[in-house]
Design goal:
The structure is a single chain. It is built from 13 helices and ten strands. By secondary structure, it is of the alpha/beta class. The protein has two domains: 243 residues, TIM Barrel (Alpha-Beta Barrel); 54 residues, no CATH class. The strands form two sheets. Strands 1-2-3-4-5-6-7-8 form an eight-stranded parallel barrel, surrounded by eight helices. Pfam families: PEP_mutase (PF13714).
Length: 311
């Protein structure tokens, strides 16, 4: 279990550091995770919406299974065990027994932290309309089930309690649900769909000393703020879940249109450190990002001969 525990231990160190705010780009597959690691993020967020659109080609309407989500989160977490991966766990995918099973799966995959929400099992993205919620007691039972499974596994995985109650039940009920979730074993509080900076400030104060989690969705209902502003408001974790999805959406749209309209995709060039021009985003660039040199070096280190003639 040592490898699986590294991310959770690191995340707890971050949460305990009064000067630290955890900024997580949303990633949904191997290449988006690799790029986020490459530019130096010290934590990643596996988005459930991104998992739905990338693995299923479907919207975030509760269509992913626990295996879809846990397997994807585990792949991302396995790329660098020193970098914590936080992951969406939707509603836990069922009643308390299923929530416990989900928790066990996420622990075994090396996930550092995950959030569970109070929507009905057929849930939807928190920034869509018409969300339906379970009763508070049902929600708290989910959190207790996750905490119990964590204790049984001897794990330190961080449980993040998310509520979508603000839209339909109001601020006071949302805060009540989060406080009850913390009493049930959650480590971090996540109020989804906040509509103003004042509401952001207010919930951090209401939940103190519990660390609070902020979701920055482009085109969503919550005003977008930067890391400095989030720190000043008191948040400890901020995710930008659309980071990878938007990049893929915009980039693929551009290249696909170019190929469709012109019959080709022209090479893009970049100036290298030595002053020479090279193709940007070449097949070798992608493979290097994903560990080409490291794979070759490992093979030779252990006595393999697969790559002696180069790659």
């Amino acid at each position: 279990m040592a490898a699986q525990q590294k991310g959770a231990a690191k995340l707890r160190q971050y949460l305990a550091d009064p000067e630290k705010i955890v900024i997580c780009p949303g990633v949904h597959d191997g290449i988006t995770a690799r790029m986020a690691l490459h530019v130096g993020f010290d934590a990643l967020y596996m988005t459930g919406a991104g998992t739905a659109v990338s693995r299923l080609g479907q919207p975030d309407l509760g269509l992913t299974t626990v295996d879809d989500m846990a397997t994807n989160a585990g792949m991302i977490a396995g790329l660098d065990r020193n970098v914590p991966v936080l992951a969406d766990a939707d509603t836990g995918f069922g009643g308390p027994l299923m929530v416990a099973r989900t928790t066990e799966k996420y622990i075994l995959q090396g996930v550092a932290g995950f959030h569970i929400e109070d929507q009905v099992t057929t849930k939807r993205c928190g920034h869509l309309l018409g969300k339906e919620l379970v009763e508070a007691e049902t929600y708290w039972a989910r959190i207790r089930a996750a905490a119990h499974a964590r204790a049984c596994m001897g794990s330190d995985i961080v449980i993040i309690a998310r509520t979508d109650a603000l839209q339909s039940l109001g601020y006071d009920e949302a805060v009540r649900r989060l406080k009850g979730a913390v009493e049930a074993g959650a480590d971090v509080a996540f109020l989804e769909g906040m509509e103003s900076r004042e509401q952001m400030r207010k919930v951090v104060q209401a939940l103190s000393p519990t660390p609070c989690f902020l979701n920055m969705v482009g085109g969503g209902v919550t005003p977008l703020i930067n890391a400095r502003e989030a720190r000043e408001l008191g948040f400890k974790i901020v995710i930008w879940p659309m980071c990878g999805m938007s990049a893929v959406y915009l980039g693929m749209r551009e290249f696909a249109r170019e190929l469709k309209e012109t019959g080709e995709i022209k090479e893009r060039y970049v100036t290298a450190d030595d002053g020479t021009r090279k193709v940007d985003g070449s097949v070798r660039d992608v493979f290097e990002l994903c560990g080409l040199k490291e794979c070759s070096a490992f093979d030779q280190e252990v006595g393999g001969s697969s790559f002696l003639k180069g790659v």
